[in-house]
Amino acid sequence: MKQVFFFICVTGFLFSCKENKQTETPAAIHYDSSYQPAVFTNAAREEKIKNTFEVVDKIFSDYADSNHLPGVAYGLVVDGKLIYKGNIGYTDIDKKIPVTSSSLFRIASMSKSFATMAILKLRDDGKLDLDDPAYLYIPELKDLKYPTVDAPHITIRHLMTHGAGFPEDNPWGDRQLADTDKDLLELIARQLSFSNTPGIAFEYSNLGFALQGMIITKITAMPYQDYIRKNIFEPLGMKTTTYEYGEVAPEKLAHGYRWLNNKWNEEELLHDTKEGSWGAMGAMISSIDEFANYMALHLSAWPANNAADNGPIKRSSVREMHHPWRWNGFNPNYKFPDGRTCAVTSAYCYGLGWLKDCEGKTYIAHSGGLPGFGSQWRIMPDYGVGIVSFANRTYSPMGYVNLKVLDTIIKLAGLKPMELPPTKILEQRKNDLVKILPDWNNAEQSGVFAENFFPDNPIDTLKKYAIELYGKAGKIISVSSVKPENQLRGSFMLTGEKTDIEIYFTLSPENPPLIQEYHIREIPKKKSL
Length: 529
Prior knowledge:
The chain is α+β, with helices and mostly antiparallel strands. It is 29% helix and 20% strand. It has a nine-stranded antiparallel β-sheet with strand order 3-2-1-13-12-11-10-9-8, sandwiched between helices.
C-alpha cells in the first residue's frame, strides 16, 4: 500500500493522493482529572517583576546607544500577557517618526516558526507526515543529486530542523525574498549544492524554509502567506502583521538602516511576493503589540494541563515545536551578560532554538536579521516569562540584550520555576511507607508494593538498614509532603532529633500505581555557624 501511495504521488496526482490516503479518525483523548500540573509558588510574582521595569529600560537604552540603533521596540510577556513595553528612537529618521509598540518592523528569521507551525497544523489535519520525502510535494526534488549513495531523501522534518544537508546560506538567502516559485524551481533544476548528507548535521538553511513555504502552498492550494494569515495571524488577533511592506501604512512602517562611516544609511526594503515562497524564511513584518499574542500562545502550552485546547494549533504541537530535535552545540565556557561562566548546550527545534544552561534553565528563542533589521524573541516556559525586541539596524544582535534582561528580571524579582504539587497517589504511597517503616512488618501482605519489589529488595536487608537509620535519627519530629519529580516519582523528608532521613520512591504504571523502587538515606543536619 505504501509503495502504491508513493508511486501515485510522484507521478503528479499529489492532491488526490493525499485526500484519499487511508487514515483513521484520531481517537478521542480520555484524560485523568487527577493530573496535577506544575504551578508558580512565588508570592506577588507579577508585582515583583514590575519593580524591575526601570532597570529593563536602562538596559535597552544603554544597548541602543552603544550599538547605534536608530529605533528599538521591546515587550515583556508574563503569564500570557504583555505587561510592559518600551520604545526608543525612530522608525523613520528623516521624518522623526517615533517608535511605538504598534510600529511594524521586519522581523526576518523570526518568521521561521510560523512556517513550521503551519506545517504542524497540516500534519494535525492529516494532510502530510513530517517524515514524508519532500519530493512528494515538490516533484522537482526527486531528481536531486545527493552527495552520497547512502543518503536519505530529504524529508519535511529535515527542512524544519536545518538538517537537509544544504550549506549555511546567510547572507545569500536574505537577497532572495522577491524571487518567485518559478525562480526556485529553476534553482532546483540546475541542481543544489550540498555541504552534508541529509540527516547528519545541523546547518542553518534559509533555502530549507523556502521549500516549506512551497509545500504549504502546494497542499493548501493558496499562497502560504494567506494560509498562515487565516490560520495563525487572524485567530491570534494579529491584524496588521503581514509579509509585504507595501501593505503597511507608511506611518507605521519601520525603515531599515545600516551604520556605516559613522552615520545611518537607509537600506532598501525587500519585497515579498505571493508568487514566491522565500518569505517563509524571513519576510514577516509585525509589531510588539501583536507578536506578544504569538508569544502568549507558546507560553500557554506549558505546563501540560486539562484546560480547553482552543488555540490555532494544539498545545501538544506547540510543545513539539519546543523539543530539541537537532543538537547543535555545547559551550562549557559560556559567559552570561553579567560575566559569570555557566555551561550551555543548544539544539534546533522546529523553527526555534533551544538552550539549557548549567543551572537547568531552558530558553526557547529565535533571532532575525536582514539588511536594515535585527530582532529576537526569547521565552522561558518554566518561568512563564518572555521578552521580544525589534531594532531597525542591519543585523543588530538583540539576543544578547534579551538574555541580559531575562537574567536580570529573574534575579531581581527572585523568580522560581513552576513546581509540581504532589499527586494524591504519591501522598498516599508516602503514608503507606511511613506506616511500614522502619520494621517492615506485614509489608509483603500490604498490597502497596509492585511484584518486582521484594525480589529486588530482600526484606531482611530493607529492615536492617531502615532500623539503623531510624536509630541514628532518634525521635521523628515531622514528615514532609512529597517533593514530586513527576506524577509517579518523588521523595520526602523525615525530620529527626539527631539527623534527618530522605526517602525516595517511584511507582509502577499499574492502576493503581504500586511502589516499584525505594531508597532511604541519611541527610545530616546543617551545622549552624
